[in-house]
Design a protein that fits this description.
Distance between the termini: 56 Å
Largest sheet: 11 strands, mixed
Structural class: mainly beta
Number of strands: 23
Shape: globular
Number of domains: 3
CATH architecture of the largest domain: Sandwich
CATH class of the largest domain: Mainly Beta
CATH superfamily of the largest domain: Protein of unknown function DUF2961
Helix content: 10-25%
CATH topology of the largest domain: Jelly Rolls
C-alpha cells in the first residue's frame, strides 16, 4: 500500500471518539503530517483541504416545509454528486402511516456511475434495527433516536457515520415500495468534495438478506421426542448456515446487524442462540474464523440476560421479549457487531455465516444487514425480496407460532 493510500485509510479509521485508537497510523507517522482525509476526534486538529457540502430536504422557498413527499412506486434522489469526495453522514426521518414502512422503503447507493447499487436495503434495517421497528439506541457508526408516546415505536431520527468514498460520483436514493404515500421525508446527506481519492480506496457496501424460516437440520418431531439430539448435531462445513453476506474481490467485512424472530423453538427452551459464527475467507473449504455461540459473536454471554443494551461496536438494538405472563417466550431481537477496530480482511472472497441454533436445529425467521468495503466491480447482489416477503411477522402471530411448537 502506498503512502497516500495509508493516509486515506487512517482517516477512514477514525470514527468518533473511539477513533482515537483506530486512527493511529502504522509505521510511526502519528504526527509527521496530516492524513489525506482526517477523521475522528484524534485528528480533528489537522488542517483540511476538502470542502464540506450537503444535500438536504430543506424548503427552497425559505419557509418551514423542509420535507419531500414520496408517492407509492416513486424513487426520490437524495443526492446526485459529481467528482471525487466522501459521504460522511446521513440523517433521515420519515412520517409515514403505513404499517411496517421501515421495511417497505428501500435505500440504495451507487458509486462512480455503476448501474447495480452497492447499497440496497430496507430503510430501518440499514440503521441497525430489524422487524420494521424504531428504537432508541446508539453505536459509533449507526444510531436511532425515537420520540415519545405513540411515536416511540414508529418514528426515529436515523443516523449513519460510515464513510463512503467515491472517485467520480455518488447517487443515493429512497424508493417507496409501499401502497401509501410517504407524507414527509426529511434528510441530510453530508459529504466532502476532494481533488481525488486513491485508486485503491475501497467502496462501501451494504446488503440485506432474509431466510424465513431457516432450514432446520432436525425435524420438529425429532426435537420433541429426543432433545438430546440437539446437542449432538455435527456441523463442520456450514452447509445449512444462515448467510449474512458473500462477496468476491478485495476488501474487509465491517460488521452486521442480525434480526431473529424465535417462531419455532426447541420445546421447553426459549433461547434462540448457541449458533456459531463461521467466516470463510478466500475460498476456504473450512472456515478460519469459528465462534462459540450467537451471543458470543455479538460480544455478550449467557443468553443475553441483560436484554437491551447499546455500546460502541456491539449490542442489542431491539429486544422484544420475554413477554410478561408468557414464560420463556423470547420474541423478536436485533443484535449488532461492527468490526471497526477489527475488520475481517479478504483478498479474493468472503462468506460470513452463522448457525441458527446449535448445529442449525432451529427454523426461525432470520434477517440481516451486512456492511463491508471492497474493490469494484462487486458481484451482483441476490435480488431484493418483494415487499410482502420482507414484512415482519405480526407480533401476535409470532407469539402464536412460538407456542404452537410446544
Amino acid at each position: 500500500m502506498n503512502s497516500m493510500s495509508r493516509r486515506f485509510f487512517q482517516g477512514l479509521a477514525g470514527l468518533g471518539a473511539a477513533g482515537m485508537a483506530a486512527a493511529q497510523p502504522q509505521g510511526g507517522r502519528a504526527m509527521s503530517g496530516a492524513p489525506m482525509m482526517p477523521g475522528g476526534l484524534d485528528q480533528i486538529f489537522w488542517a483540511r483541504k476538502a470542502k464540506r457540502k450537503r444535500e438536504a430536504s430543506w424548503d427552497r422557498n425559505g419557509k418551514n416545509s423542509d420535507r419531500v413527499p414520496v408517492a407509492p412506486g416513486q424513487t426520490h434522489v437524495m443526492a446526485d454528486l459529481r467528482g471525487a469526495g466522501c459521504v460522511r453522514h446521513i440523517w433521515i426521518t420519515v412520517a409515514h402511516e403505513e404499517p411496517d414502512y421501515l421495511r417497505r422503503l428501500v435505500l440504495r447507493a451507487y458509486w462512480d456511475g455503476e448501474s447495480a447499487p452497492s447499497v440496497e436495503t430496507p430503510l430501518g434495517d440499514f440503521f441497525g434495527v430489524g422487524h420494521a421497528k424504531a428504537t432508541n439506541y446508539w453505536s459509533i457508526p449507526l444510531n436511532m433516536v425515537t420520540g415519545s408516546g405513540a411515536q416511540r415505536g414508529n418514528r426515529a431520527g436515523m443516523n449513519c457515520f460510515f464513510p463512503m468514498p467515491f472517485a467520480r460520483g455518488a447517487r443515493i436514493t429512497l424508493e417507496n415500495q409501499g401502497s401509501a404515500p410517504v407524507r414527509s421525508l426529511y434528510y441530510y446527506v453530508d459529504y466532502e468534495t476532494l481533488d481525488s481519492v486513491p485508486d485503491d480506496a475501497l467502496r462501501f457496501h451494504a446488503q440485506w438478506r432474509r431466510e424465513n424460516p431457516t432450514r432446520a437440520s432436525l425435524k420438529i418431531e425429532d426435537r420433541v421426542k429426543d432433545k438430546a439430539k440437539v446437542g449432538q448435531m455435527v456441523n463442520l462445513d456450514g452447509a445449512l448456515n444462515y448467510v449474512i453476506m458473500e462477496a468476491k474481490g478485495r476488501g474487509h467485512y465491517a460488521g452486521c446487524a442480525l434480526s431473529i424472530d424465535h417462531i419455532n423453538p426447541i420445546p421447553d427452551v426459549g433461547w434462540f442462540g448457541e449458533g456459531d459464527d463461521m467466516i470463510f475467507i478466500d475460498g476456504e473449504a473450512q472456515p478460519s474464523l469459528v465462534g462459540t455461540g450467537t451471543e458470543d459473536y455479538f460480544c455478550a454471554a449467557w443468553g443475553y440476560p441483560g436484554g437491551f443494551n447499546s455500546m460502541p461496536y456491539h449490542g442489542i438494538s431491539y429486544a422484544g421479549g420475554p413477554v410478561e405472563g408468557q414464560g420463556v417466550y423470547s420474541g423478536k431481537w436485533t443484535m449488532y457487531r461492527y468490526h471497526i477496530e477489527d475488520p475481517v480482511m479478504f483478498e479474493k472472497s468472503i462468506k460470513v455465516t452463522i448457525e441458527h441454533g446449535p448445529g442449525n436445529v432451529q427454523a426461525n425467521d432470520y434477517s440481516s444487514i451486512a456492511f463491508w468495503y471492497q474493490t469494484e466491480p462487486h458481484e451482483p447482489f441476490p435480488g431484493l425480496l418483494p415487499v410482502e416477503a420482507r414484512l415482519p411477522i405480526a407480533d401476535a402471530d409470532s407469539l402464536r407460532m412460538y407456542w404452537k411448537s410446544y
